Amino acid sequence: MAQKNGKSPRRKGFDAERELVRLLGGQRVPLSGAAGGEYSGDVVVPGLGTGEVKRRRDGFRQIYGWLEGRDFLALRADRRDWLIVLPIERLQSVMARGREDNAQDAECSRDPKAPGRISANKG
């Protein structure tokens, strides 16, 4: 039976994966994780790893409500690991700071007289 009003769920998922890759970099995983093994997950984002992408018309209302007016949301079910949810803009900011820090670290490793660099020579 064809879906009324709107895109097919498969197309909607494909579009969500492409949008996330455009926002964060990285790439879609071939077959969107359906193949398993090294192809598990939907996207691979540098600095984050392999991820699953979910998009719902209004299925995450409670999460958005808890996150409103805050920088992040921490969730944990009993006997499970913590999950952190944050707005995409916040994640982009954190990732950009990480890239800047990595660039500064690389610069310090090339410049023996850079501030904060510790010399291995003791003389």
Folded structure, characterized:
A hairpin with a 3-residue loop joins strand 2 and strand 3. The protein has 2 domains: 55 residues, no CATH class; 58 residues, no CATH class. It contains 3 helices and 5 strands. With 123 residues, the chain is of the alpha+beta class. The chain is 37% helix and 11% strand. The strands form 2 sheets. The protein has a 3-stranded antiparallel sheet with strand order 1-2-3, covered by helices on one side. The protein has a two-stranded antiparallel ribbon with strand order 4-5. The protein is globular, with a radius of gyration of 20 Å.
Layout of helices and strands:
Layout: H1 9-24, E1 27-28, E2 43-45, E3 49-51, H2 61-67, E4 73-75, E5 83-85, H3 88-110
Antiparallel strand pairs: 1-2, 2-3, 4-5
Share of helix among residues?
A: 25-40%
Rg to the nearest angstrom? 20 Å
Structural class: alpha+beta
User: Could you tell me how far the N terminus lies from the C terminus, measured between alpha carbons in angstroms?
Assistant: 79 Å
Strand content range: 5-15%
- Helix count equals 3
Shape by Cα distribution = globular
Number of strands: 5
Major β-sheet annotation? 3 strands, antiparallel
Our count of domains comes out at: 2
* Lateral strand order in the biggest sheet: 1-2-3
Report the uncertain regions.
Answer: none
Mean pLDDT: 84
Give the H and E element order.
HEEEHEEH
